[in-house]
Amino acid sequence: MADPIRTTALTLKAGGEDRIRALDLTLSARGTTVIMGPNGAGKSLLLRLLHGLIAPTSGTIHSTGRQAMVFQRPVMLRRSVEANLLFALRRGPYAQDAENKCREMLTEISLNTRAKQPARSLSGGEQQRLALARALSLGPEILFLDEPTASLDPTATLAIEKTVQRSADAKTKIILVTHDQGQARRLADEIIFLHNGQLCEHTLAAEFFEAPTSQQARAYLAGQLVL
Ligand SMILES: Nc1ncnc2c1ncn2[C@@H]1O[C@H](COP(=O)(O)OP(=O)(O)OP(=O)(O)O)[C@@H](O)[C@H]1O
Ligand SMILES: [Mg+2]
């Protein structure tokens, strides 16, 4: 099991402005943390910082363990669906049984009939499903998901949520960004609410939806908050 993720005074400047402002966070090593907040709040930047893809301007991040991320806009290799998945599988704990695991995972995400198709010709939602399978094939202890169902239909959304929940049950730490309040209610153990790069609220999911403590979160949930 991965250690808890900790940040102290985490700050990121970009384009001459503070985009992430002195965040002190401790995320439990288990369960699902959902990050919410309006467009431009800094959610994607925070995920990239936690995953180590960008360096903070100041402050510290402690986050260890095998990690994988599904990006808001997934990038597919210029190869077939199957080759995209095999590429990841051969680098993870399923390397010895990559071909079988690949078939199994493609069936699970309903892309088994598309195995030979170029991955870049998949629809947006299909690419997101493949991106999730690719991330899971690395056997992550921490899985970062940036709006993984933003362009999916309701059936595909529930399929992704089921896969995410199964990973959480198998003790993968999930850190998920979403604007979908239903999804947050279904999956979250705790909520982090960001606004303008600042941490407004970090509470248990049940408390957040029952009675958000910050004025910003109340306004957001009521559809009244813009950056
Ligand atoms: N490289 C950069 N240079 C300048 N500004 C940046 C850079 N990257 C991000 N920003 C700005 O930082 C802010 C936070 O961006 P981020 O992508 O984290 O938002 P977000 O909360 O994920 O929003 P969304 O819900 O739209 O995905 C935005 O205002 C964005 O324009
Ligand atoms: Mg984003």
Tally of contiguous helical segments: 8
Structural class: alpha/beta
Top CATH class of the domain at 5-76 and 140-221: Alpha Beta
Mean pLDDT across residues: 94
- Give the cofactors and ligands: adenosine-5'-triphosphate, magnesium ion
Describe the structure.
With 227 residues, the chain is an alpha/beta fold. It has a domain at 5-76 and 140-221: P-loop containing nucleotide triphosphate hydrolases (Rossmann fold, 3-Layer(aba) Sandwich), CATH 3.40.50. It has eight helices and nine strands. It has helices at residues 43-51, 81-89, 98-108, 124-136, 154-169, 181-187, 205-210, 215-221, and strands at residues 5-14, 17-27, 32-36, 58-62, 67-70, 142-146, 173-177, 190-195, 198-204. The strands form two sheets. The chain has a six-stranded mixed β-sheet, sandwiched between helices. Strands 2-1-4 form a three-stranded antiparallel β-sheet, with helices on one face. Strand 1 and strand 2 (17-27) form a beta hairpin. It is globular. The site of magnesium ion has 4 residues, from helix 1.
